[in-house]
Amino acid sequence: MSKIQSMQDAFLFSAPASNLNVPLTARKVHIRRLYEVLQLSIHRNDLPRARRAWSILVRCKEINWTTMWNTAIHLVEENSYGDDSAKRRELLRDMMLHYPDQRIAVIKELIFRLILSGRHREALDELELYLPSFPYQDSPVLHIYAGLLCFYLSQEHSNFEASTTFQPSLVREAMAHLERAQVLDPGNIVAVSFLHKIAIRNLESNIQATQLEDSDDEPMVQDDSPPMPKRLRQTKSSP
User: Fold this and answer.
1) Predicted local distance difference test score (pLDDT) of residue 180
2) What is the dihedral angle through the alpha carbons of 93, 94, 95, 97, rounded to the nearest 10 degrees?
């Protein structure tokens, strides 16, 4: 038992697969060490070395790379402009098609990366495509993403005024998604907080609309009093 424990303690990171927990052959020891190189290179931001280690690991039958797709996404080369790479989004979409058991986790990552890239409308379109179907419709996180995106896109900023107006239809969609998320996960603080914020905003909007209607209904008072006579400038008479 102490020998097995000492073998496990010889590695810094947990094994990427259960069959590698106790590497009893030279091949498995080599795979564990290669996995150590991969993780250390990622932590040191040495991505070229990490990619070389990854390219060997994914060809090993002991490694199920689909369970490590987060690592694969991280190692996809970024473009020179600092924007989230389109290659990453393509890889995520391919994984959703070919590995359905990972599709919930993958679409969460895809939506997150679209938001980071400023592609809010595209992220909402992706959610509207998948949310009506199973198993996506039962994910509270996806409904929260959809609600927050609807609320963000509902805001219309004016270039000339500091005020912000909201599109009522998108606000209603935001509330519907957040309420669905609350039903699926009653203790979700994000859904509860934003439902409260939207309710306050709707109340303030209704109060402002009522005040505007009241001001429009006020009758105009006409002043029928005769006009005041003009004052004549007195001139000094000559002696």
Assistant:
1) 93
2) 90
